[in-house]
Design brief:
290 residues; Ribosomal Protein S5, domain 2; 61% helix; elongated
Length: 290
Amino acid sequence: MIQSMTGYGKSSKQIESGMLTAELRSVNNRFIEVSIRLPEFLEVYEEELKRLIGKNLTRGRIRASVTLNGVKDETQKINIQLLKKHYENLSSAVKDLEIDENVNIQHLLTFPDLICVETPSFEADSIIGNVKEVLSDALEDLIRMRQQEGEYLSKEIYSHLEEIEGNVSEIERISGEGKRNYFVKYKKQLKSLCDDLDFENDRVLQEAAILAKKLDITEECERVHSHINQFRTYLESDGPVGKKMTFLVQEINREITTIGTKAESAEISHLVVDVKVELEKIREQAQNIL
């Protein structure tokens, strides 16, 4: 079954150092693009963790993060040096502006970055195994969501294909009836212009055959049906087929455009527009398929 490129995955594990959490978000992209945010002490493993993600996901823009919360022996401290600097600057401003008010601690605490969190140092090697485990679980969660979204997209595309197939069959029916009526009308016009015209003349018959070929849309309709069958095959595939679907939409659109150009019927022209609308819906959905 096809997969969407949109998804979200998350996994957490309590380890001795704290709560380890991995989150993954993916959206559509032509190629695979992975970025990851890590605690500073894990940054040495950034490329290795990116490869772990890329090995399991072939397309999409992936945003990953790994956090370690609730760390034991974590302490909060006020940055005294920064506090003094803010106090001096604020006191100077109060004096220059001749404000009749003293600077107090409440004023100073409105400044950001005064409180810093100090965490005990970690050896990355001691928890990298747990990091990979949590990240792998988050990947599995992400893939499950992409499969669910792919199932929904598959149903939507199936319905659009059925609509297109029904419209093309109707075009074939109208074309078959209209072709006979057109040639009766064409023959009458020729007779009215040339009373002495021999309709058994080889040249006249040759021109009629050329005209018939120009108006015939049998081959185009057959190719559309063939492309639709191929599309259904892609929808049952487990591999990456999004790019193939996008190409197939272009091919169907080309055949439908040719049918519209050949059409001598306003009714067929309206059906061609309807088919193009359905194709545009499929194209948008195919861009999100792996």
